[in-house]
Write a structure and sequence with these properties.
38% of the residues lie in helices and 4% in strands. With 423 residues, it is mainly alpha-helical. The chain has 3 domains: 165 residues, no CATH class; 106 residues, Orthogonal Bundle (Cytochrome Bc1 Complex, Chain D, domain 2); 113 residues, Orthogonal Bundle (Cytochrome Bc1 Complex, Chain D, domain 2). Helix 2 crosses helix 6, helix 10 crosses helix 12 and helix 16 packs across helix 17. This is Cytochrome c.
Length: 423
């Protein structure tokens, strides 16, 4: 009976095959309106493609630590196993050197590679399908100019039967809908440009969106927070407590362009996104993203249980000993140096995983051309126990007007082990 149940569980898991997975460039074009064709001439197309590659954060995922840019082999942790990114340099044997424009367009729009194999959504084709054909071919034109690198793709570390790519056809049939972005005629061109970037090239809900048991994101839902790469990406919707409801459009522009603002600093995977991608976006595109995000409605605020006084007292003492020197007594931080913790949507997010991870392993503020000083925070994994980190998190999430769920020691222990094993 146990063997039968185990087999049934594995077959069910067959469906669970998804991941989750700077001085602005003077050569970058200004915001391109939807439907606008690329500028004439190959260099105009290549320059545009370079900008789009940065906007899509392609280099980050397709570059292994200390590896050649775009040569792949980066380990991407998912709830179902580790997926290794592919080589997208124009190497003819191990990269995309022999891919035609149609091959590349099909991969971006349908999630099917040159050999006809279905890709895992660690490659965010459910979002890239919204890109215009001109944008896709501009990306391909730029990638074709890169130095070819021979880098054989490493086998993904997925259990059977999740390692069978044919099963992705079932996943696509259930959860994937292809098709380019269709502008909303009731909205402004700026709003539509922002929606195109957020819902398409930026694939923001790949991290910031909620996922079902199979790892699929409902593309029609606003990005109200989700898990990715062992961290929790907070809500981008209009919630005041745990979203962007109290942020101004300028707050969003500054955060994406520099990695910090008066409310918070980027940490975890988002720090890399700012360094590798959003700091390079043109100001019109950053403003368009801000306009779109500020239009997202606030979800219904869920009730949060009251935290007991003993836990808060223990957490307060730990805060004084370990955090107050930098983040100050009232959690206000020091703008430009130490991010504020009070009234922080990231601190009050539905999950404390990112805050726990920062306390365990430390963090570094992104280094950008506009803000080149990337201050770092030490980790406390060797200094604080699971129970102490839980109490400290609970205090920070409920002090100075903050209000969020308490953190349990067992949850800290599980995340500590996950981060320790993370590739």
């Amino acid at each position: 009976m146990r063997k039968a149940l185990a087999l049934a569980s594995l077959l069910l898991l067959a469906l669970l095959c998804t991941a989750c997975s700077h001085d602005r460039d003077p050569a970058a074009p200004s915001a391109v309106k939807l439907g606008e064709r690329m500028s004439p001439g190959p260099w105009g197309q290549i320059s545009r493609g370079r900008y789009l590659v940065r906007a899509g954060d392609c280099e980050a995922c397709h570059t292994a630590p200390n590896g050649a840019p775009f040569a792949g082999d980066r380990a991407i942790p998912t709830p179902f196993g580790t997926i290794y990114s592919s080589n997208i340099t124009p190497d003819p044997e191990t990269g995309i050197g022999n891919w035609t424009d149609e091959d590349f367009y099909r991969a971006m729009h349908e999630g099917i590679d040159r050999e006809g194999d279905h890709l895992y959504p660690a490659f965010p084709y459910p979002w890239y399908t919204k890109l215009s054909r001109d944008d896709v071919l501009s990306i391909k034109a730029y990638l074709d100019t890169l130095t070819p690198v021979r880098q054989v793709h490493r086998h993904n570390e997925l259990p059977w039967p999740l390692d069978q790519r044919g099963l992705m056809a079932m996943w696509d049939g259930m959860y994937f809908q292809d098709g380019t972005y269709q502008p909303d005629p009731k909205r402004s061109a700026q709003w539509n440009r922002g929606a195109y970037l957020v819902k398409g090239l930026g694939h923001c809900s790949a991290c910031h969106g909620d996922k079902n048991f199979a790892g699929a994101t409902d593309m029609d839902d606003p990005p109200t927070g989700g898990y990715a790469e062992n961290a929790y990406a907070p809500s981008l919707a209009g919630g005041v407590r745990d979203g962007l409801g109290s942020w101004t459009e300028q707050d969003i522009v500054q955060y994406l362009g520099t990695g910090r603002n008066s409310r918070t600093s980027a940490a975890g995977p988002m720090a890399e996104v700012v360094e590798q991608s959003t700091q390079y976006l043109s100001k019109p595109d950053l403003e368009a993203i801000a306009v779109y995000l500020k239009s997202l409605p606030a979800p219904k605020d869920a009730s949060v249980a009251t935290v007991d006084k003993d836990t808060l007292d223990r957490g307060a003492a730990l805060y004084v000993d370990n955090c107050e020197a930098c983040h100050l007594k009232q959690g206000q931080g020091e703008i430009g140096a130490f991010p504020p913790l009070r009234q922080s949507s990231a601190v009050q997010a539905n999950s404390a995983d990112t805050l726990i991870g920062v306390i365990l392993d430390g963090a570094r503020i992104p280094q950008t051309t506009a803000e080149p000083t990337g201050l770092a925070m030490q980790g406390f994994a060797d200094h604080l126990s699971d129970a102490q980190i839980a109490d400290l998190n609970t205090y920070i999430r409920n002090a100075w007007g903050n209000h969020a769920e308490a953190v349990e020691a067992d949850h800290v222990a599980d995340l500590r082990e996950t981060l320790r094993k993370s590739p």
